[in-house]
Amino acid sequence: MIQEGDILGKIAYLNSVIIFMIMLSSSALSFAQSSVLAPPWLRKGVFAEYEFNSKGVLLNNATTIPFGNGTYRWDCTDLNSTTAELLITLKGNSANGALFLTTNVYVDVLSRSVYTGNGTLMGTTHLWLPANPSPNDPITVWNFPPDKVVVTIINRIEQAQTPQGMQKTFTISNLITGLKTIDGGNMSFLVTSDFDTGVMVDWGSPRGDNEGTLKAIGVSGLLVDGRLLFTNTNIDLDPNNGSNAISLLVFLGFPIIFFLLFAAIYVRRKKTYRHLTKHKITETRFSEEASIMFPKYSCFING
């Protein structure tokens, strides 16, 4: 006979196994997500657009083109596990008429190294930096052998205006630790990025010095008059909003659902068992009484 305590013990054991499997699955999912090189928000079709006032555009050959109001935009046109293809567009008005520069570049999603279509390394992009950084995390802002610039955060938590309102940001710079030499000249890096995604919010530097995607279109810097304004994007700059509550609901909900399921099965089995037991007892009593009343046919009554 199956004891009630045995069934409850089995249910408790199964519930523990379910909770363990959910925890194991959650860990595996986290590991899988962390093993993917591309930021979770980076996918085909995302874009970011910036507007600025400019005194001119500094070309890679050191000449300057007079330049007025402009727009700098990137679109992700393709993505695989290691490389993002970006369409880079710089357009605006100049004294000589409209200026329109565009090209496709290929960005290593881990190192953020920028390559042209023929594989030429152009430098490193700051269009996004590692998200959720700690104060002492080293962040590479330029890696073009033999020159490499690694900086740390100078302001971990601040607020900045974005197309989606005020967002928490962080700023990296080498102005405190000292300027770095690139191509024989001293260069500064000052970039403000969204904290949750790492997406660039502003170039603190007035030139956007040594941005790999700009170099790919023949521009070594923008002589920005004022600030670079982050004006449009379809990237969710607050991806963690509500995710903890949802995760907690899912984590707690599955064990509860399974427990209720097994409890329902237990109750049903218990009722079935009681019904069968009662039926068996009644049948046995009938057989015994019939055998007493008709001993001659007891062999037929008892089967």
Walk me through this protein's architecture:
By secondary structure, the protein is α+β, with helices and mostly antiparallel strands. The protein contains four helices and 17 strands. It has a seven-stranded antiparallel beta sheet. Strands 9-10-11-14-15 form a five-stranded antiparallel beta sheet, with no helix packed on it. Strand 5 (83-94) and strand 6 (97-108) form a beta hairpin. Helix 1 (4-35) runs antiparallel to helix 3 (243-293). The longest helix has 51 residues, at 243-293. The two termini are 23 Å apart. The relative contact order is 0.14.
Q: What's the arrangement of secondary structure elements?
A:
Elements: H1 4-35, E1 47-52, E2 54-59, E3 64-65, E4 70-79, E5 83-94, E6 97-108, E7 113-115, E8 121-124, E9 139-144, E10 147-162, E11 165-173, E12 180-182, E13 185-187, E14 190-194, E15 200-203, H2 212-216, E16 219-224, E17 229-233, H3 243-293, H4 298-301
Antiparallel strand pairs: 1-4, 1-17, 2-3, 2-16, 4-5, 5-6, 6-7, 7-8, 9-10, 10-11, 11-14, 12-13, 14-15
Kindly report the oligomeric state of this protein.
Answer: single chain
- How far apart lie the N and C ends? 23 Å
The global form is: elongated
Tell me the fraction of residues in β-strands, as a range: 35-45%
The tally of beta strands, per DSSP, is 17
Largest sheet: 7 strands, antiparallel
Number of helices: 4
In N-to-C order, the SSE pattern is HEEEEEEEEEEEEEEEHEEHH
State the low-pLDDT regions, or none. 24-35, 242-252
Mean pLDDT: 75
